[in-house]
Amino acid sequence: MFAAGTLSVAKVQKRNAWRYYTRRVAFGDGRRPVGQSLKDAQEMAGLPPGRWLGRGLAALELTGGAEVSERQLELLFGQGRHPDADRIERGLLDDGADQATARLTTVLGQPIEEIEARKQTPLLALDFTFRPQASLIVLWALGDARTRRIIERAHERATAKALRWLEDEVAETRWSSGRERAKTPALVVAAFRHFDNRDNFPLLHDHCLILYRVQRLDDGEPVWGALDTRRRYRHVVAAGTLYTLAMTTEVCEELGLATVPRDVTPGLTPHHPAAVVDDHHGRLAPRLRERAGAPEHHRQVQGQRVDRAAGSPRHHRIGLLTTTGQESVMWSEPCSSGVSS
Fold first, then answer.
1. DSSP assignment string, 138-169
2. Which end of the chain has fewer surrounding CB within 10 Å, N or C?
């Protein structure tokens, strides 16, 4: 995994990696019970379904914002095939095509089996995970309903802006062992919204699975090829910075906040957390310090999931304040009137 501030990137390589994403990531980093459908599990956890993003969806006859199904994840990110391969294959078989030809028609680019035959590990996707900076996470976790809506909306818009920039300025395909390259401003992305981390502490973030396959024109005909991941990795810091600036700007404008520079370790990316509203901070800081010193609250919420469907952030608040200790007090310096007292 490669991390750059508010953006981290991980490779999806193993052929059964889609199972990890449908059983854990699509379920909010939890463990989905065996035999339970993905949709039912997401509803039980209070999570929105995954959604399709990117300009490359048109080539797959998918619609932006549409729900990501478990079967689509398996076909696209597990087998490197068209997400509607079952229907396409049945149609070809009905027209008289043999099984091998029908299946090969649904493969996007080079078949995974050919890559594995060369003793190589096929790359299926890149997991770009966007999350707000720490000060906004605390503001979101402690804030009232309006504050949380503003931060979540800004997070969604900033993520979309960063993905569009990656499509417009960074995305390239390569072939002929990397000797040939071409711009491909059309990505296929499956995005999953999370509200906490694996320890059930509040952490708003989106997992954006960017398909490793992209389309280009060859003598006027569309063909599927490989995404240039090296170029993408070189621009991770820039994409994360764009996301942070877009989100912080919108939140500050909506909530009347400002940012202040923060000293960082030499060589690391400069950081500007949100800050302001001293009069409210005077009432909030003592409460944070009191809760930060109560480890029994942590034992009460360890292993529990917040009932997001019922809209109750109570467990999240206690878990954050008691487990992170003095860090939560430090991050609470920039409070706003949107934080509930």
1. HHHHHB-HHHHHHHHHHHHHHHHHHHHHIIII
2. N
More confident residue, 167 or 291: 167
Q: Are 277 and 335 in contact (CB under 8 A)?
A: yes
Residue 111 has pLDDT above 80, yes or no: yes
Would you place residue 54 in the very low, low, confident or very high pLDDT band (cuts 50, 70, 90)? very high
Cα distances from 121 to residues 12, 76, 189, 332, in angstroms, run 10, 16, 21, 45
Strands 51-53 and 172-175: unpaired
Beta strands 213-218; 202-211: pairing state: unpaired
Tell me 41's DSSP state.
H
Return the top range by mean pLDDT from 176-185, 205-214, 253-262, 330-339.
205-214
Q: SS3 for 206?
A: strand
SS3 content of the chain, % helix, strand, coil (to 5): 45, 20, 35
CB 187 within 8 A of CB 215: no
Residue 88 has a pLDDT of 94
Does the structure show a pLDDT above 90 at 257?
no
For residues 207 and 25, the answer to whether their CB atoms sit within 8 Å is: yes
Block residue for tokens 């820039």: 238
User: Residue 278 pLDDT > 60, yes or no?
Assistant: no
DSSP 131: -
In sequence order, the 6+-apart residues with CB closer than 8 A to the CB of 252 are 258, 259, 274
For residues 173 and 223, is the Cβ–Cβ distance under 8 A? no
H-assigned helices in 256-340:
278-292, 295-301, 314-323, 326-331
- 120 in Cβ contact with 14 (< 8 Å): no
Phi-psi region of 299 (alpha: psi -120 to 50; beta: other; left: phi over 0): alpha
